[in-house]
Specification:
Layout (H helix, E strand, L loop, with lengths): L1 H17 L4 H12 L4 H25 L5 H24 L2 H34 L1
């Protein structure tokens, strides 16, 4: 019975991720606040979630020939370097500080998205007038 809640939460988070609503951030919030999992293991699970989600997206974009290979060859190595450096830095920082930084980034990201949507809404109203 306990797993039904996890299944429902996972399905909702996956659906929101499919809609582009940052499912990874929601997954970490669920794992840390509801399941009381420490931040670093929750981030590890989030990485697995991201690998599967991005892998399926990659297949679709590849089939539709929507991949900029030159940009990929530049950004992929930089992403790997950033991930390695980030993992070492995360070991040096206390889990509480990591949690606070993550929360701050989520808040900033949410505010930016709200402002973007408000700006688009205002632009639509101006065009319709």
């Amino acid at each position: 019975m306990q797993y039904i809640g996890d299944f429902i939460a996972s399905a909702c988070i996956a659906a929101m991720a499919g809609l582009g609503i940052g499912g990874g951030g929601l997954l970490i919030i669920y794992l840390t606040l509801v399941k009381h999992m420490p931040q670093l293991p929750a981030q590890g699970i989030n990485l697995l979630f991201f690998l599967f989600a991005s892998g399926s997206s990659l297949v679709i974009h590849f089939k539709q020939k929507r991949i900029d290979w030159k940009l990929l060859l530049i950004l992929a190595p930089l992403g790997v370097i950033g991930a390695v450096v980030g993992s070492y830095v995360a070991k040096l920082i206390s889990p509480l500080l990591i949690r606070r930084i993550f929360a701050g980034l989520l808040i900033v990201s949410g505010i930016i998205e709200l402002l973007k949507r408000e700006k688009k809404s205002n632009e639509k109203q101006t065009v319709q007038s």
